[in-house]
TrEMBL record:
<feature type="domain" description="3-hydroxyacyl-CoA dehydrogenase C-terminal">
    <location>
        <begin position="189"/>
        <end position="286"/>
    </location>
</feature>
<feature type="domain" description="3-hydroxyacyl-CoA dehydrogenase NAD binding">
    <location>
        <begin position="8"/>
        <end position="186"/>
    </location>
</feature>
<protein>
    <submittedName>
        <fullName>3-hydroxyacyl-CoA dehydrogenase</fullName>
    </submittedName>
</protein>
<keyword id="KW-0560">Oxidoreductase</keyword>
Length: 295
């Protein structure tokens, strides 16, 4: 195994995405420090990663020694200041510009000046998050997809002031983690969440207009068009507390362009706490992570 481009990596936010990035970074040989404002989220991530590595060992995809090494590289951080020695910190917290900006302002005062800071934002402007930082040249977008270990593409996004070396290093690290880096411009939704707008918003319009129900749309798009997940399965996987703000953010950043208009259907479901697979209650109901109704 080659020396990781970033030997010590911090993950802030250890939900679905932070946990996935932590997994592949540890597998690539990096020491991974996990921080979350909810300490139970860190414990949950550690337990889930341990179980994940055991499963990979059972399938013969990791040796028992590799599992032990990965577990040893995972270090819970009690406070943000514990990320001081990180060469790279990746943020995967709530999709809100103000919260992300204040996190990076704090992190900049903690890490070494040479450290790279990166956001896993799905839709916010990398340039806007970096605005106000003392070292915007050390900051970039690093956008992974869910579930991270299986979705092999990562968008590397340079903001207006990002040093091109930073993106090159992030791309090199992505390759070490077994992923395929793609350079994307700093535009709302980058490549995937821009191109993917039509998939979700049009499907919601079809439901809103009473043309078909959500399960029929999922089934047809999978069986007849060949998508691996239907739009409503994808909403459930991403979770509406992530995907609805992403829809709003892209719509507003494109000056309220009608084709990006979010749906009242997802707004209402989010308000009602019907979020998705992670709380067992989405377009589909889930028990132990399994949908109770086939699309
Ligand atoms: P999640 O809800 O599963 O996890 C977020 C975690 O961040 C939670 O554990 C929460 O306690 C923690 N957190 C919130 N505010 C914090 C703060 N200020 N400091 C430290 N920890 C904090 O969310 P998920 O799905 O992992 O998404 C996180 C980010 O990744 C969002 O920006 C989202 O847009 C992006 N993303 C999500 C994808 C998805 O499919 N869910 C795909 C690609 C990107």
């Amino acid at each position: 195994m080659s020396t990781p481009e970033f030997p010590t990596v911090g993950l802030v936010g250890t939900g679905a995405m932070g946990r996935g990035i932590a997994q592949i970074a540890a597998q690539a040989g990096a020491v991974v420090r996990l921080f979350d404002t909810q300490p139970e989220a860190i414990a949950k991530a550690q337990a889930a990663l341990g179980a994940q590595w055991d499963k990979l060992a059972e399938k013969g995809k990791l040796t028992a020694e590799a599992v032990t090494a990965c577990r040893a590289r995972l270090k819970p951080a009690a406070q943000l200041a514990d990320l001081a020695d990180c060469d790279l910190v990746v943020e995967a917290i709530v999709e809100r510009l103000d919260v992300k900006k204040s996190l990076f302002a704090e992190l900049e005062g903690i890490v070494q000046p040479t450290a790279v800071l990166a956001t896993n934002t799905s839709s916010l402007s990398v340039t806007a998050i970096a605005a106000g930082l003392k070292r915007p040249q050390q900051f970039a977008g690093y956008h992974f997809f869910n579930p991270v270990p299986l979705m092999k593409v990562v968008e590397c996004i340079a903001g207006l002031k990002t040093d091109p070396t930073v993106c090159r290093r992030l791309a090199a690290f992505a390759r070490q983690m077994g992923h395929t880096p793609v350079q994307a411009g700093d535009t709302p939704g980058f490549i995937v969440n821009h191109a993917g707008r039509g998939y979700g918003t049009e499907a919601l319009r079809i439901v809103g207009e009473g043309v078909a129900d959500f399960a029929t749309i999922d089934r047809i798009l999978k069986d007849q068009v060949g998508f691996r997940l239907g739009p409503f399965e994808l909403f459930d996987l991403t979770a509406l507390d992530v995907s609805h703000p992403v829809m709003e953010s892209i719509y507003h950043q494109y000056y309220e362009e009608p084709r990006y208009r979010p749906s009242v259907i997802t707004a209402q479901r989010l308000a009602g706490g019907v979020v998705g697979k992670k709380n067992g209650d989405g377009f589909y109901a889930y028990v132990d992570g399994k949908a109770q109704m086939a699309p």
